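Milestone 3.1: sequence recovery, worked example.
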């Protein structure tokens, strides 16, 4: 008779173990495949490298523009840059100047 009393208790314990096993498997899958899991980690590192490279390019371009702004300061304008801009933007040329147009390759 003690066998019949132990059976329902054994089945309840087995159900709890199976539920715990499924819960652990679900957590393991989430850790591996989830949005911040192990598989996404390498993708995040790749994106970080790409964005770091892009940030360096933007910083370099910003420094170039900052230098041009400094050279065009109204109180102390760089004559060469001002002449280049006048020639380029306004198509202004002195009569004695020779203009050579180079094609971009």
């Amino acid at each position: 008779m003690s066998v019949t009393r132990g059976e329902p208790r054994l089945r309840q314990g087995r159900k709890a173990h199976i539920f715990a096993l499924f819960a652990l498997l679900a957590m393991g899958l989430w850790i591996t495949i989830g949005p911040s899991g192990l598989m996404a980690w390498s993708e995040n590192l790749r994106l970080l490298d790409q964005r770091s490279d892009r940030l360096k390019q933007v910083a370099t371009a910003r420094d170039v523009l900052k230098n041009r702004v400094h050279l065009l300061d109204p109180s102390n304008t760089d004559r060469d840059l001002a002449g280049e801009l006048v020639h380029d933007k306004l198509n202004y040329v002195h009569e004695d100047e020779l203009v050579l147009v180079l094609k971009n390759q």
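The mean pLDDT is 84. The helical segments are 2-33, 38-71, 79-90.
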